[in-house]
């Protein structure tokens, strides 16, 4: 559940890294903007149109996806493109800077308080294969699966996807084939941002709230998931996200029993970052990562 | 069709090519030879648009392409086979060839693909394999076939014989001759000066980033300076 959200966000990190070798630390903020835009859209459109809940949610999701795609393209154009030839560290620091800028702009626009995300979907728990799930959870998992199938189709079966894979391997060589590399980079940011918006709406819908600071921790965890799966590797981000979600939930669930009640489930976050450290120490290329030699 | 005048190229301010004048006529075969570091590969990078010139001009079929990015030069009929078997290692052979036809939407793509496969049957056998698993010679064949998929009128080849066994080199040079017979102009950069000059009608000798000698390929092969410096005699 949480894992599918990590996976969606991790895809954005991994796709941008695959093509530019850049960790876009502002990506978590795009998720946050996606959630807040959706709340605003529901607040404005709900009373104005009187649409039924699920339809309203769908429209708000659409608005949020468009807003995030715009934000992603803007980030690329304003912050990263001028630094394409700069040392990696410069781009990394810029990404962190953009993250702070977006967070503060969001704070100015939406305020410091938690905003509640209205419950627009039926939420009675039901029993499915022995597990208790809610409609929201089922929809999150189904939408994530759908988004991933569409993404894999795009990347593996279309001319655009082939150009994206070629550009990830060598931008110079791809340009010799007639590929406009700048355009591929923009498309990558657009796709990643659309997935981030989807994740943002899901996470806000799941917890029933959102605020300007929510992207930070979520972004770090999704980044951990991308590293766990092997950064730059699309199936890896999916597997890493799902695995991290399971590790966190199990960890939070059992930590109390394991430590005799000394540590509680609020230590949940520790697991994600323990995983990050362990992966970086023992398997830096990640679960599905290619051998480092391939990435020369 | 290609007219280069006063071309200057540099890496981080260090000049690699200066005041280079070079011409290729339609359908012609031209060789560029010279020692390591003479500026041969740099010249091709400049022509393909991978480096921006500091001075000079490049005209292709009368059009000034000096400031055009690499991807726009492809649709004007220029295609580079890069040095060191530049293939997309993690795409399959067939996907590499599809990338060669990236800008094309015409119905002739299938026919061109068949022609590439009949020129290099090994590529057909291995069309579903990742390009990175091919041998060096097969990767070079793939790089050439992929360049042909854009239907170039001018093919730039950067050291196609590098690191290949002599029989494989012979096979590659035969293929280049076949391509040229089909009307494609060839600009061939080579360490293997003899093979390159024997294939070509004209040649340029680069030294220290400048044209030291230029002329008829047979005259260059016969010239004592070339024989001493590049043919090991």
Please report the distance between the alpha carbons of the first and last residues of chain A. 36 Å
Q: Specify the biggest β-sheet of chain B.
A: 6 strands, mixed
Low-pLDDT stretches of chain A are 291-296
The greatest interface between two protein chains, and residues involved on each side, is:
A-B, 19 and 25 residues
Give the termini separation of chain B. Answer: 35 Å
Run of helices and strands of chain A:
HHHHEEEHHHHEHHH
Question: Percent helix among the residues of chain B?
Answer: 25-40%
Q: Name the beta content range of chain A.
A: under 5%
Oligomer: heterodimer
Given helix and strand content, the structural type of chain A is mainly alpha
Structurally, how many domains make up the residues of chain A? 1
Low-confidence stretches of chain B: none
Globally, the shape of chain B reads globular
CATH 2nd-level architecture of chain B: 3-Layer(aba) Sandwich
Helical content band of chain A: over 70%
The CATH homologous superfamily of chain B is called: P-loop containing nucleotide triphosphate hydrolases
Strand-helix topology:
The complex is a heterodimer of chains A (296) and B (233).
Chain A (H helix, E strand, L loop, with lengths): L1 H19 L6 H23 L3 H28 L7 H23 L4 E2 L9 E3 L2 E3 L1 H23 L1 H11 L1 H6 L4 H27 L1 E2 L3 H16 L4 H25 L9 H15 L14
Antiparallel strand pairs in A: 1-4, 2-3
Helix pairs in contact in A: 1-5, 1-8, 1-9, 1-10, 2-3, 2-4, 2-8, 2-9, 3-8, 5-6, 5-8, 6-8, 9-10, 9-11, 10-11
Chain B lengths: L1 E10 L2 E11 L4 E6 L5 H9 L6 E6 L2 E2 L5 H5 L3 E4 L11 H8 L8 H11 L1 H5 L10 H13 L5 E5 L7 H16 L3 E6 L2 H7 L2 E6 L2 E7 H6 L1 H7 L3
Parallel strand pairs in B: 3-8, 3-9, 6-7, 7-8
Antiparallel strand pairs in B: 1-2, 1-4, 4-5, 9-10
Helix pairs in contact in B: 3-6
């Amino acid at each position: 559940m949480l894992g599918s959200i990590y996976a969606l966000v991790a895809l954005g990190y991994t796709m941008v890294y695959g093509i530019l070798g850049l960790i876009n630390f502002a990506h978590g903020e795009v998720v946050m903007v996606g959630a807040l835009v959706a709340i605003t859209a529901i607040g404005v459109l709900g009373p104005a149109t009187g649409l039924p809940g699920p339809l309203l949610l769908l429209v708000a999701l659409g608005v949020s996806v468009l807003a995030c795609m715009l934000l992603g393209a803007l980030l690329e154009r304003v912050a990263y493109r001028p630094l394409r030839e700069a040392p990696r560290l410069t781009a990394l620091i810029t990404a962190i800077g953009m993250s702070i800028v977006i967070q503060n702009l969001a704070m100015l626009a939406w305020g410091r308080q938690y905003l509640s995300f209205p419950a627009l979907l039926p939420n009675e728990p039901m029993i499915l294969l022995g597990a208790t799930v809610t409609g929201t959870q089922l929809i999150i998992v189904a939408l994530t699966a759908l988004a991933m199938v569409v993404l894999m189709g795009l990347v593996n079966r279309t001319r655009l996807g082939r150009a994206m894979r070629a550009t990830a391997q060598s931008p110079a060589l791809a340009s010799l084939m007639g590929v406009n590399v700048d355009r591929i980079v923009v498309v990558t940011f657009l796709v990643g941002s659309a997935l981030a918006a989807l994740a943002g709406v899901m996470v806000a819908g799941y917890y029933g709230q959102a605020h300007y600071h929510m992207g930070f921790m979520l972004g770090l965890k999704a980044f951990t998931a991308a590293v766990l799966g092997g950064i730059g590797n699309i199936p890896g981000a999916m597997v890493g996200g799902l695995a991290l979600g399971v590790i966190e939930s199990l960890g939070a669930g059992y930590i109390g029993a394991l430590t005799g009640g000394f540590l509680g489930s609020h230590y949940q976050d520790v697991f994600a970052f323990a995983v990050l450290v362990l992966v970086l120490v023992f398997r830096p290329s990640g679960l599905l990562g290619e051998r480092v030699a391939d990435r020369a | 069709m290609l007219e280069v005048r006063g071309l200057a190229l540099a890496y981080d301010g260090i000049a690699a090519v200066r005041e280079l004048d070079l011409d290729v006529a339609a359908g012609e075969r031209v060789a560029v030879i010279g020692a390591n570091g003479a500026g041969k590969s740099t010249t091709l990078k400049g022509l393909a648009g991978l480096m921006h010139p500091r001075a000079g001009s490049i005209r292709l079929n009368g059009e000034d392409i000096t400031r055009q990015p690499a991807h726009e030069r492809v649709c004007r009929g220029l295609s580079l086979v890069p040095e060191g078997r530049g293939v997309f290692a993690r795409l399959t052979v067939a996907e590499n060839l599809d990338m060669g036809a990236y800008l094309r939407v015409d119905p002739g793509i299938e026919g061109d693909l068949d022609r590439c496969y009949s020129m290099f049957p090994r590529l057909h056998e291995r069309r579903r394999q990742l390009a990175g698993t091919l041998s060096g010679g097969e990767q070079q064949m793939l790089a050439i076939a992929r360049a042909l998929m854009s239907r170039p009128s001018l093919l730039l080849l950067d050291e196609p014989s590098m690191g290949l066994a002599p029989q494989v080199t012979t096979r590659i040079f035969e293929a280049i001759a076949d391509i040229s017979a089909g009307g494609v102009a060839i600009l061939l950069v080579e360490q293997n000066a003899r093979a390159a000059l024997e294939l070509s009608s004209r040649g340029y000798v680069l030294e220290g980033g400048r044209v030291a000698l230029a002329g008829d390929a047979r005259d260059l092969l016969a010239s004592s300076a070339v024989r001493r410096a590049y043919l090991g005699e």
